[in-house]
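Design request, C-alpha coordinates follow.
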Protein backbone atom coordinates (compact mmCIF):
# COMPACT_ATOMS: atom_id res chain seq x y z
CA UNK A 1 0.00 0.00 0.00
CA UNK A 2 1.31 3.42 -0.95
CA UNK A 3 1.71 6.17 1.65
CA UNK A 4 0.29 8.70 -0.81
CA UNK A 5 -3.33 9.75 -0.24
CA UNK A 6 -5.51 10.93 -3.12
CA UNK A 7 -6.77 14.55 -3.13
CA UNK A 8 -10.27 13.21 -2.41
CA UNK A 9 -9.03 11.25 0.65
CA UNK A 10 -7.17 14.32 1.94
CA UNK A 11 -10.30 16.47 1.50
CA UNK A 12 -12.33 13.85 3.39
CA UNK A 13 -9.71 13.83 6.16
CA UNK A 14 -9.95 17.61 6.45
CA UNK A 15 -13.75 17.40 6.66
CA UNK A 16 -13.59 14.77 9.43
CA UNK A 17 -10.87 16.67 11.30
CA UNK A 18 -13.24 19.66 11.51
CA UNK A 19 -16.17 17.47 12.56
CA UNK A 20 -14.05 15.75 15.21
CA UNK A 21 -12.86 19.07 16.59
CA UNK A 22 -16.46 20.29 16.89
CA UNK A 23 -17.55 17.02 18.52
CA UNK A 24 -14.78 17.25 21.14
CA UNK A 25 -15.62 20.92 21.83
CA UNK A 26 -19.30 20.01 22.30
CA UNK A 27 -18.29 17.19 24.66
CA UNK A 28 -16.16 19.58 26.71
CA UNK A 29 -18.96 22.17 26.94
CA UNK A 30 -21.52 19.52 27.93
CA UNK A 31 -19.51 18.53 31.02
CA UNK A 32 -20.35 19.62 34.54
CA UNK A 33 -18.67 22.98 35.23
CA UNK A 34 -16.13 21.35 37.56
CA UNK A 35 -14.73 19.20 34.71
CA UNK A 36 -14.74 21.74 31.87
CA UNK A 37 -11.17 22.87 32.52
CA UNK A 38 -9.94 19.30 32.22
CA UNK A 39 -8.62 17.85 28.94
CA UNK A 40 -11.25 16.62 26.41
CA UNK A 41 -9.44 13.26 26.31
CA UNK A 42 -7.16 11.96 29.06
CA UNK A 43 -8.88 14.30 31.59
CA UNK A 44 -7.91 12.25 34.64
CA UNK A 45 -4.31 12.85 35.70
CA UNK A 46 -2.83 9.99 37.70
CA UNK A 47 0.44 11.67 38.69
CA UNK A 48 2.74 14.52 37.65
CA UNK A 49 6.47 13.88 38.06
CA UNK A 50 9.76 15.52 37.20
CA UNK A 51 12.29 13.41 35.34
CA UNK A 52 15.47 13.41 33.26
CA UNK A 53 15.78 12.30 29.62
CA UNK A 54 19.30 11.41 28.49
CA UNK A 55 20.18 10.98 24.82
CA UNK A 56 22.56 8.03 24.80
CA UNK A 57 26.22 8.77 24.18
CA UNK A 58 27.92 6.80 21.39
CA UNK A 59 24.80 6.27 19.27
CA UNK A 60 25.69 4.89 15.83
CA UNK A 61 25.71 7.56 13.11
CA UNK A 62 22.43 6.31 11.57
CA UNK A 63 20.59 7.13 14.84
CA UNK A 64 22.14 10.57 15.33
CA UNK A 65 19.10 12.47 14.07
CA UNK A 66 17.47 15.68 15.35
CA UNK A 67 17.08 15.49 19.12
CA UNK A 68 19.30 12.40 19.16
CA UNK A 69 22.17 13.99 17.20
CA UNK A 70 24.10 14.95 20.35
CA UNK A 71 24.32 13.32 23.79
CA UNK A 72 22.55 15.54 26.32
CA UNK A 73 20.35 15.33 29.41
CA UNK A 74 17.07 17.29 29.38
CA UNK A 75 14.82 18.01 32.31
CA UNK A 76 11.44 16.35 31.74
CA UNK A 77 7.87 16.83 32.94
CA UNK A 78 5.70 13.71 32.98
CA UNK A 79 1.92 13.44 33.11
CA UNK A 80 0.40 9.97 33.59
CA UNK A 81 -3.32 9.79 32.72
CA UNK A 82 -6.36 7.65 31.96
CA UNK A 83 -7.41 7.97 28.31
CA UNK A 84 -11.18 7.88 28.86
CA UNK A 85 -13.04 11.12 28.06
CA UNK A 86 -14.90 10.66 31.36
CA UNK A 87 -13.23 11.02 34.74
CA UNK A 88 -14.00 7.62 36.20
CA UNK A 89 -12.66 5.01 38.58
CA UNK A 90 -9.20 3.58 37.87
CA UNK A 91 -10.84 0.18 38.40
CA UNK A 92 -12.49 0.55 34.98
CA UNK A 93 -10.36 -1.19 32.35
CA UNK A 94 -8.86 1.19 29.82
CA UNK A 95 -5.84 2.75 28.15
CA UNK A 96 -3.34 4.74 30.19
CA UNK A 97 -1.35 7.65 28.76
CA UNK A 98 2.03 9.21 29.40
CA UNK A 99 2.90 12.68 28.11
CA UNK A 100 6.58 13.64 28.30
CA UNK A 101 7.81 17.21 27.87
CA UNK A 102 11.53 17.88 27.51
CA UNK A 103 12.59 21.38 28.54
CA UNK A 104 15.12 23.64 26.80
CA UNK A 105 15.63 21.52 23.68
CA UNK A 106 17.38 23.86 21.23
CA UNK A 107 15.68 24.54 17.87
CA UNK A 108 12.33 25.80 16.58
CA UNK A 109 9.46 23.36 17.10
CA UNK A 110 6.76 22.60 14.48
CA UNK A 111 4.04 24.16 16.70
CA UNK A 112 4.90 26.90 19.16
CA UNK A 113 2.78 27.96 22.14
CA UNK A 114 -0.06 30.37 21.21
CA UNK A 115 2.11 33.32 22.34
CA UNK A 116 4.93 32.10 20.08
CA UNK A 117 6.94 30.72 23.01
CA UNK A 118 8.91 27.47 22.97
CA UNK A 119 6.68 24.54 24.03
CA UNK A 120 9.56 22.11 24.68
CA UNK A 121 9.80 18.77 22.90
CA UNK A 122 6.93 16.39 23.65
CA UNK A 123 6.43 12.64 23.30
CA UNK A 124 2.82 11.45 23.69
CA UNK A 125 2.42 7.79 24.43
CA UNK A 126 -0.28 5.26 25.33
CA UNK A 127 -0.20 1.85 27.00
CA UNK A 128 -1.08 -0.04 23.79
CA UNK A 129 0.77 -0.28 20.44
CA UNK A 130 -2.10 0.38 18.01
CA UNK A 131 -5.24 2.48 17.61
CA UNK A 132 -8.64 0.74 17.34
CA UNK A 133 -9.40 2.69 14.16
CA UNK A 134 -7.25 3.37 11.06
CA UNK A 135 -7.88 7.05 10.37
CA UNK A 136 -9.61 10.32 11.31
CA UNK A 137 -12.97 9.30 9.85
CA UNK A 138 -12.85 6.12 11.96
CA UNK A 139 -11.90 8.08 15.09
CA UNK A 140 -14.80 10.50 14.51
CA UNK A 141 -17.36 7.72 13.97
CA UNK A 142 -16.17 5.75 17.01
CA UNK A 143 -16.13 8.85 19.25
CA UNK A 144 -19.56 9.97 18.02
CA UNK A 145 -21.14 6.58 18.72
CA UNK A 146 -19.49 6.26 22.12
CA UNK A 147 -20.71 9.78 23.01
CA UNK A 148 -24.28 9.11 21.79
CA UNK A 149 -24.51 5.76 23.58
CA UNK A 150 -24.96 3.96 20.23
CA UNK A 151 -21.64 2.10 20.37
CA UNK A 152 -23.16 -1.40 20.25
CA UNK A 153 -25.15 -0.59 17.14
CA UNK A 154 -22.02 0.91 15.52
CA UNK A 155 -19.89 -2.14 16.36
CA UNK A 156 -22.45 -4.77 15.37
CA UNK A 157 -24.78 -3.14 12.80
CA UNK A 158 -25.35 -5.97 10.26
CA UNK A 159 -25.32 -3.51 7.32
CA UNK A 160 -22.10 -1.69 8.29
CA UNK A 161 -20.42 -3.60 11.14
CA UNK A 162 -17.19 -2.64 12.90
CA UNK A 163 -16.33 -5.80 14.85
CA UNK A 164 -12.58 -5.17 14.35
CA UNK A 165 -12.88 -1.84 16.16
CA UNK A 166 -14.64 -3.56 19.06
CA UNK A 167 -12.04 -6.34 19.25
CA UNK A 168 -9.14 -3.88 19.16
CA UNK A 169 -10.79 -1.69 21.82
CA UNK A 170 -11.31 -4.72 24.07
CA UNK A 171 -7.69 -5.83 23.56
CA UNK A 172 -6.36 -2.39 24.55
CA UNK A 173 -8.39 -2.09 27.78
CA UNK A 174 -6.31 -3.23 30.74
CA UNK A 175 -6.42 -3.03 34.50
CA UNK A 176 -2.75 -2.48 35.44
CA UNK A 177 -1.15 -2.52 38.89
CA UNK A 178 0.75 0.73 38.44
CA UNK A 179 1.13 3.19 35.52
CA UNK A 180 4.86 3.66 36.24
CA UNK A 181 5.50 -0.02 35.42
CA UNK A 182 3.81 -0.11 32.01
CA UNK A 183 5.31 -0.11 28.55
CA UNK A 184 4.11 2.78 26.36
CA UNK A 185 3.94 3.31 22.57
CA UNK A 186 3.37 6.27 20.25
CA UNK A 187 0.78 4.27 18.24
CA UNK A 188 1.30 6.59 15.26
CA UNK A 189 4.45 7.22 13.19
CA UNK A 190 6.93 10.09 13.10
CA UNK A 191 9.57 11.23 10.67
CA UNK A 192 13.14 10.34 11.62
CA UNK A 193 15.15 12.77 9.51
CA UNK A 194 14.54 13.18 5.78
CA UNK A 195 13.54 9.78 4.52
CA UNK A 196 12.91 7.44 7.45
CA UNK A 197 9.89 6.88 9.71
CA UNK A 198 9.65 5.50 13.25
CA UNK A 199 7.27 4.64 16.02
CA UNK A 200 8.35 5.28 19.61
CA UNK A 201 8.17 3.06 22.67
CA UNK A 202 9.14 3.55 26.29
CA UNK A 203 10.16 0.31 27.99
CA UNK A 204 10.57 0.03 31.78
CA UNK A 205 14.01 -1.17 32.89
CA UNK A 206 13.46 -1.07 36.67
CA UNK A 207 11.49 -3.41 38.88
CA UNK A 208 8.48 -2.67 41.03
CA UNK A 209 9.29 -0.86 44.28
CA UNK A 210 7.41 -0.25 47.50
CA UNK A 211 4.32 -2.00 48.83
CA UNK A 212 1.76 -3.31 46.32
CA UNK A 213 -1.31 -1.07 46.27
CA UNK A 214 -4.68 -2.85 46.33
CA UNK A 215 -6.90 -2.17 43.31
CA UNK A 216 -9.75 -1.47 45.69
CA UNK A 217 -10.12 2.30 45.35
CA UNK A 218 -11.20 4.63 42.52
CA UNK A 219 -7.81 6.37 42.51
CA UNK A 220 -5.48 3.44 43.14
CA UNK A 221 -3.35 4.09 40.05
CA UNK A 222 -2.19 7.51 41.26
CA UNK A 223 -1.55 6.09 44.73
CA UNK A 224 0.49 3.24 43.21
CA UNK A 225 2.52 5.62 41.00
CA UNK A 226 3.36 7.96 43.90
CA UNK A 227 4.14 5.05 46.21
CA UNK A 228 6.56 3.55 43.66
CA UNK A 229 8.39 6.84 43.08
CA UNK A 230 8.48 7.60 46.81
CA UNK A 231 10.44 4.36 47.31
CA UNK A 232 12.63 4.14 44.24
CA UNK A 233 13.74 5.72 41.00
CA UNK A 234 12.07 4.31 37.87
CA UNK A 235 14.09 3.93 34.67
CA UNK A 236 13.12 3.31 31.05
CA UNK A 237 14.66 2.85 27.62
CA UNK A 238 13.23 5.26 25.06
CA UNK A 239 13.27 3.31 21.78
CA UNK A 240 12.66 3.95 18.09
CA UNK A 241 11.37 1.35 15.62
CA UNK A 242 12.64 2.27 12.17
CA UNK A 243 10.22 1.27 9.43
CA UNK A 244 11.85 -1.43 7.31
CA UNK A 245 9.02 -2.38 4.94
CA UNK A 246 6.60 0.32 3.71
CA UNK A 247 4.10 -2.27 2.49
CA UNK A 248 3.77 -3.99 5.87
CA UNK A 249 4.26 -0.82 7.94
CA UNK A 250 1.87 1.80 6.57
CA UNK A 251 1.87 5.43 7.70
CA UNK A 252 -1.84 5.91 7.04
CA UNK A 253 -3.39 3.01 8.96
CA UNK A 254 -2.97 3.28 12.74
CA UNK A 255 -4.43 -0.20 13.38
CA UNK A 256 -1.35 -1.92 11.93
CA UNK A 257 1.21 -3.11 14.44
CA UNK A 258 4.67 -2.80 12.91
CA UNK A 259 6.18 -6.26 13.43
CA UNK A 260 9.03 -6.03 15.94
CA UNK A 261 10.80 -8.99 14.33
CA UNK A 262 10.99 -7.21 10.98
CA UNK A 263 11.72 -3.80 12.55
CA UNK A 264 13.14 -4.11 16.09
CA UNK A 265 12.97 -1.24 18.57
CA UNK A 266 16.41 0.18 19.40
CA UNK A 267 17.23 2.39 22.40
CA UNK A 268 18.18 6.03 21.72
CA UNK A 269 17.66 7.58 25.16
CA UNK A 270 17.06 6.78 28.81
CA UNK A 271 14.27 8.25 30.92
CA UNK A 272 14.66 8.42 34.67
CA UNK A 273 11.99 9.39 37.19
CA UNK A 274 14.06 9.99 40.31
CA UNK A 275 12.72 9.13 43.74
CA UNK A 276 10.46 12.02 44.76
CA UNK A 277 7.32 12.99 46.62
CA UNK A 278 5.60 15.51 44.33
CA UNK A 279 3.91 18.41 46.11
CA UNK A 280 0.38 19.44 45.05
CA UNK A 281 2.00 22.55 43.52
CA UNK A 282 4.33 20.42 41.37
CA UNK A 283 1.44 18.26 40.17
CA UNK A 284 -0.69 21.35 39.44
CA UNK A 285 2.17 22.83 37.39
CA UNK A 286 2.43 19.62 35.31
CA UNK A 287 -1.35 19.61 34.87
CA UNK A 288 -1.21 23.20 33.57
CA UNK A 289 1.17 22.28 30.73
CA UNK A 290 0.01 21.84 27.15
CA UNK A 291 1.28 18.73 25.38
CA UNK A 292 1.09 18.03 21.65
CA UNK A 293 2.82 15.64 19.24
CA UNK A 294 3.55 18.76 17.17
CA UNK A 295 5.75 20.20 19.93
CA UNK A 296 8.66 18.60 18.12
CA UNK A 297 11.70 19.40 16.00
CA UNK A 298 11.03 19.19 12.23
CA UNK A 299 13.27 16.09 12.01
CA UNK A 300 10.61 14.31 14.12
CA UNK A 301 7.48 15.60 12.34
CA UNK A 302 4.34 13.56 13.16
CA UNK A 303 3.05 11.76 10.05
CA UNK A 304 -0.16 9.99 8.96
CA UNK A 305 -3.73 11.27 8.96
CA UNK A 306 -4.35 10.83 12.70
CA UNK A 307 -1.28 12.92 13.49
CA UNK A 308 -2.20 15.56 10.89
CA UNK A 309 -5.58 15.94 12.62
CA UNK A 310 -3.94 16.23 16.03
CA UNK A 311 -1.95 19.31 14.90
CA UNK A 312 -4.87 21.69 15.24
CA UNK A 313 -7.12 19.64 17.53
CA UNK A 314 -4.72 19.63 20.53
CA UNK A 315 -4.09 23.34 20.06
CA UNK A 316 -7.77 24.21 19.76
CA UNK A 317 -9.02 21.95 22.57
CA UNK A 318 -6.39 23.18 25.02
CA UNK A 319 -7.39 26.77 24.12
CA UNK A 320 -11.04 25.95 24.82
CA UNK A 321 -10.39 24.19 28.15
CA UNK A 322 -8.14 27.01 29.30
CA UNK A 323 -10.88 29.49 28.37
CA UNK A 324 -8.74 31.29 25.80
CA UNK A 325 -9.86 32.62 22.41
CA UNK A 326 -8.42 31.24 19.17
C1 LIG B 1 -7.44 11.62 15.90
C2 LIG B 1 -6.88 11.08 16.96
C3 LIG B 1 -6.74 11.81 18.28
C4 LIG B 1 -7.44 12.87 18.77
C5 LIG B 1 -8.57 13.63 18.11
C6 LIG B 1 -6.90 13.17 20.08
C7 LIG B 1 -7.34 14.21 20.87
C8 LIG B 1 -6.80 14.55 22.09
C9 LIG B 1 -7.15 15.72 22.86
C10 LIG B 1 -8.18 16.77 22.44
C11 LIG B 1 -6.40 15.73 23.99
C12 LIG B 1 -6.40 16.79 25.09
C13 LIG B 1 -5.52 17.96 24.65
C14 LIG B 1 -5.49 19.09 25.64
O1 LIG B 1 -6.53 19.54 26.11
O2 LIG B 1 -4.38 19.57 25.95
C15 LIG B 1 -5.58 14.54 23.95
C16 LIG B 1 -4.70 14.16 24.93
C17 LIG B 1 -3.91 13.04 24.86
N1 LIG B 1 -3.81 12.13 23.81
FE1 LIG B 1 -4.82 12.22 22.10
N2 LIG B 1 -5.91 12.28 20.37
C18 LIG B 1 -5.77 11.44 19.30
C19 LIG B 1 -4.87 10.42 19.16
C20 LIG B 1 -3.95 10.05 20.11
C21 LIG B 1 -2.95 9.05 19.92
C22 LIG B 1 -2.64 8.28 18.64
C23 LIG B 1 -2.28 8.94 21.10
C24 LIG B 1 -1.17 7.98 21.28
C25 LIG B 1 -0.30 7.94 22.17
C26 LIG B 1 -2.87 9.91 22.04
C27 LIG B 1 -2.49 10.10 23.36
C28 LIG B 1 -2.90 11.17 24.14
C29 LIG B 1 -2.38 11.43 25.48
C30 LIG B 1 -1.36 10.60 26.26
C31 LIG B 1 -3.01 12.62 25.91
C32 LIG B 1 -2.82 13.34 27.25
C33 LIG B 1 -1.82 14.47 27.03
C34 LIG B 1 -1.60 15.27 28.28
O3 LIG B 1 -1.28 14.64 29.32
O4 LIG B 1 -1.74 16.51 28.21
N3 LIG B 1 -3.88 10.56 21.39
N4 LIG B 1 -5.84 13.84 22.79
Amino acid sequence: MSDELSAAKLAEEQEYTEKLEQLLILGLRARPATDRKKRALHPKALAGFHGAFTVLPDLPDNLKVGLFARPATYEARLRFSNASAIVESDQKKGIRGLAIKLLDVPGTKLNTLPDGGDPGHDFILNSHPIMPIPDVKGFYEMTLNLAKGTALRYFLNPFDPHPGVLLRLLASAKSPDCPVELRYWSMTPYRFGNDRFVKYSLVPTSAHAGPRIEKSTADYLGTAARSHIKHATATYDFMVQIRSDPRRMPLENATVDWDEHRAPFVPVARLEIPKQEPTPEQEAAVEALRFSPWHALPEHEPVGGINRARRRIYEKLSQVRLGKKG
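Comment from the thread starter after seeing the answer: thanks! The CA atoms of residues 140 and 161 lie 16 Å apart.
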